[in-house]
Amino acid sequence: MKKLLLPLVLMTAASGASDDSKSATNDFYTTDFLDQVATLRDHALTDPLAYDITESLTTEVGARLAGSPGDAKAVAWGEAKFKSLGFDRVTLEAAPLKRWVRGVETAEIISPFKQTLTITALGKSSPTPNEGITGEVVHFNTIDELKSADPALVKGKITFISNRMERHKDGSGYGKAVGARSTTAQVTAAKGGIGAIIRSIGTDNNRTPHTGAMKYEADVAAVPAGAISNPDADLLVNMLNRGKPVTLKYTLGSRFDGDYVSHNVIGDIIGSEKPDEYIVIGCHLDSWDLGTGAIDDASGCGITMAAAKLIKDHIGQPKRTIRVVLWANEENGLSGAKAYHEAHKEEMKQHIFGGESDFGAGTIYAFGTRMDEKAMPLVHEMMQLLQPLGIEYAGNEASSGADLIPMRAAGMAVFGLKQDGTKYFDYHHTANDTLDKIDPKELAQNVAAWVVVTALSANTSENFGFDLSDK
Amino acid sequence: MKKLLLPLVLMTAASGASDDSKSATNDFYTTDFLDQVATLRDHALTDPLAYDITESLTTEVGARLAGSPGDAKAVAWGEAKFKSLGFDRVTLEAAPLKRWVRGVETAEIISPFKQTLTITALGKSSPTPNEGITGEVVHFNTIDELKSADPALVKGKITFISNRMERHKDGSGYGKAVGARSTTAQVTAAKGGIGAIIRSIGTDNNRTPHTGAMKYEADVAAVPAGAISNPDADLLVNMLNRGKPVTLKYTLGSRFDGDYVSHNVIGDIIGSEKPDEYIVIGCHLDSWDLGTGAIDDASGCGITMAAAKLIKDHIGQPKRTIRVVLWANEENGLSGAKAYHEAHKEEMKQHIFGGESDFGAGTIYAFGTRMDEKAMPLVHEMMQLLQPLGIEYAGNEASSGADLIPMRAAGMAVFGLKQDGTKYFDYHHTANDTLDKIDPKELAQNVAAWVVVTALSANTSENFGFDLSDK
């Protein structure tokens, strides 16, 4: 095995690789095979399949909150779609979950100036009483300010956290801002507050508030929590800036509503040489309920289903099984990820390499891995074919999508194809997550990249993690 | 009077005018006065007053649909604001209107794929029955297609017009698209349809549908009519494109609800030489109810109130009265415009020159007039001071804002300061019409331009229309 160091030299076109690189690639793949992959990659740039799948899921199913009627429709859609695409084996695997339902959502400033606000419940929020909650607003710039606040300031009041998420290509503003969403209800309740409102975790200026999950702890009964849109948060701040008490009233009908069994929907392209070794790709099938779940995450389903289908049709059966998983309930509990790991934990070492497409449909600009360093020569092979797509190597500390967390924790090697997320958080978890936000050309570039990584990892006997680390 | 031909030579700074232009300007204004105006124009570019007024109206009143509680609050706000700004005379003039109220608004596709749509009632729409209207959708690309359709195609169905408004700097896409909104209910009813849905008249891709007024004719009972957002219209089109019948259900609670008397709020800076001659500027005080009416039309109030106030404070009392009118119910019937003309029709010839700021807060790029050609030398004076703001002369066929239509029809000379409307129809008549859509610097450039036109027309004895045409 030839050792190669990154960063790699940019190749202008993989199919036009020099004699030097051809000799290098022959350690793992035939030149014919690499040419086939390069040809398919280029074909994928104009292939409509991913867009058609995305259009199908958003048009024929739409919103598909875990446990809702849309969830069941999405599972049926996924099963039928895999079959119609000619996947070799289609399996449904149960993913039990606690169903959470949204209800009425209203908010208004009562004084000093009566105005209606747009609000949405945060995932897992408990309901307000039917008549709503009315109270004085106590304003914090950040969740950390709330955490360090004297409980006497919070007791009996509605907390409001107003910091704004920053816009970055890599979405890094999200991690810095999302703590306000995930913990405000618990922190507020622990200090005696009666309600919790946050500025939406989003980069837009639309009256479309951003929902999203909260963390709950068992020892404190959390308060009903909602997000108001960015323009509404601006309005509330402007009123608070006048220095007089601001009274807010809001009503949320959201609540847990019993148990439900959703399903991971699994489509396999069965390996010709190692059918029990899996390259795991996919998306999550559920969505929040406010939009039609186009960028979160129908596009990920379109990208990965299309990549696997194109490989089967244009290159033929892979050596290893390509497993496309449409994960259940990623958004509000990772139910599918947990169920899959539990059901397959004895076969974890057969799960060779995995990635999830769950960051919209923006152009991919980087490829990262999290694997044994000994697999770097394989990464080199992939990069030869990815660089013509404008993709750089991003190092060996990649994340891989939330649904792979349990398998990654068990040691599976993962990869990430990093998408341009500049606009992603304008629409994420809002009513605005609809098909029009997807550029078909950018989506197709995603498919081309997934074809490369999936085809190359499924057509080698080399390993990326478990086996290498055992050596 | 020196005759000058347009177009004018671009001046780099009015205060640095050449000796030639100084001698030219002396026909109408002293050099000192023109220097004062140039200085105030430049000061206005950083003056915060217009933004403060706009922030005040949107924060302290917000939505102010004619006849709603917000209408009364806005009238009280306008009266108090004029007084606090030191206007010489503040007058309320009654503007009777038919109150129209919005109610419940829901829509969903029942089949072939059940999905929720965002909808808003069009202004003046009648209500559906409480249980809503359910029917098959018949699709037309344009209102003209509907107009020429066989009634047998429409009878018993819900019409849907899907053409999309084009984006242009001058907003010219609006006139081409808005016929769908204003007449679909009548045309549908006349052909025996049961309901009318249009794609929102807007250039955005947000789930924030655009409301707006319809025309009603007496001889046909119009059907309830609503607009769905652009993404929802895309979804409906995608379903229709599958070639199977699409069944839609929608509920609108909007209805007329008795008589109401709103008010035009008038603030005068009284002329020192000709107090009974009026330069009429202003905005409309009402807004649609979905947003806080920031770009439509709080910004117009901020611009024109600030321009008059700055002239009084920095230049002093004008020769003619500067009349700032905050017009009542522009959106749903021009009630204030009609009432003002009726009340003042004997004094129309004292209304010398008028303009309304009602196209948001984008940068002004052109100045147009509609007046006697003999007044062109005055326009030349104005252009000397407007050109440094990046404003070109747009000719003598200007429109001037809807509220001046009755006075313009009676012969009053009008002007228009044309704003960059590239983004205006992303937010127009939607929940997204909020303060964040306004750039304070662009708003201030507007004030600078209004200062020039208002100060120069109020500080001359020359005429623009009636008197000149009588000569």
What would you say about this model in short?
The structure is a homodimer of 471-residue chains. Chain A has 471 residues and is α/β, with parallel strands linked by helices.
Lateral arrangement of strands in the main beta sheet of chain A:
1-10-12-11-13-16-14-15
> Any idea of the CATH class of the largest domain in chain A?
Alpha Beta
Query: Could you tell me which chain pair has the largest interface and how many residues each side has?
Result: A-B, 33 and 33 residues
Percent in helix of chain A: 25-40%
Domains of chain A, number: 2
Query: What is the subunit arrangement here?
Result: homodimer
Strand content of chain A: 15-25%
Quick one: biggest sheet of chain A? Answer: 8 strands, mixed
CATH homologous superfamily of the largest domain in chain A, by name?
Zn peptidases
Q: Please count the beta strands of chain A (DSSP E, at least 2 residues each).
A: 16
Question: Describe it for me?
Answer:
2 copies of one chain form a homodimer. Helices cover 35% and strands 23% of the residues of chain A. Chain A has 471 residues and is of the alpha/beta class. Chain A has 2 domains: 14-100 and 259-470, Aminopeptidase, CATH 3.40.630.10; 103-253, Glucose Oxidase, domain 1 (3-Layer(bba) Sandwich), CATH 3.50.30.30. Chain A has an 8-stranded mixed sheet, sandwiched between helices. The first copy, chain A, has an 8-stranded mixed sheet with strand order 3-2-9-5-6-7-8-4, with helices on both faces.
